[in-house]
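dumping this here before i forget
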Amino acid sequence: MAEGFPGAVGCTPLIRLRHLSETTGCEILGKAEFQNPGGSVKDRAALALIEDAERSGALRPGGTIVEGTAGNTGIGLALVGLSRGYRSIFIVPDNFSHEKTDLLKTLGAEVRRVPPKPYKDPDNYQHIARRTAGAIDGGWWANQFDNTANLDGHYRTTGPEIWEQTDGRVTAFVASIGSGGTLAGVSRFLKERSSSVRAVCADPYGAAMWSWFTNGNTDTDDGDSVAEGIGQGRVTKNVAASLVDDAYRIGDPVAVEVLYHLLRREGLYLGLSSAINVAGALRLARERGPGQVIVTVLCDGGARYASKLYNPAWLAEQKLTPVSEGLEFLDRLAEVPPTEAG
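structure:
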């Protein structure tokens, strides 16, 4: 029996992606983080951040949680906060899905939508969140990107779960980066258990993490992606702690093909970050050959993107209508999207 909302976070199952596993000769396993009580992997970070703040005294009874978030972290923070008696204020870029912000409002949070700005701009949503927390008596800024309680939570929970669920047979872990906490915490734990485990970053176009892990700089961030909640342009403190061996750039066209394969052949209704992760796992499987046990993250469910990713008119407008009838997309995993190919 779980003790309230916090007690239900974690211990999510691994789902074997049958068609993709049989085709590649590898075990392609998805950690079903959409089964967390708040519906995403970010429940883990939210709980870890709040518990750490409570222990340190940074967040006190009756306090206010403030965060800059694209949605899922806010949902997790709001739900943990409700279970602990905190109010929440979230600063959200206004180019993210209304499904998430509507849910935040349903949860009683105050949502302040702001124009998207680069991190170097003082009006970037993260900077606004920091200033907002500082102006409130009892305000606490969660700071998911640079607060390493985030990665510590994954080190203590997600990593050990993967190790135990695979009986120590895991050979690789693949994840995209939003704050960097999942990849950092899991990679550190798994590599402590076996130095041969490979950690791989699956990065959408428009982000700079492929450049960071491949070239040691963030200079290459060309292109764009419709994925929400991932696609980091700077080396956060959580990213800096990651132990990453490889990185792949995954274009939206092939990611959407994977997304619809997961829906139509595996019965999994997911968001685009999950598809980018699975695409990264598939690319690793094809490059390194059969026999691997590759774990990736199924971050959240598709309902939060129904107006976009599961809207045929929106997909057509974005030139992202899926066309694969089978597994033809496997030959496109390294494809450069048309706008980036020139």
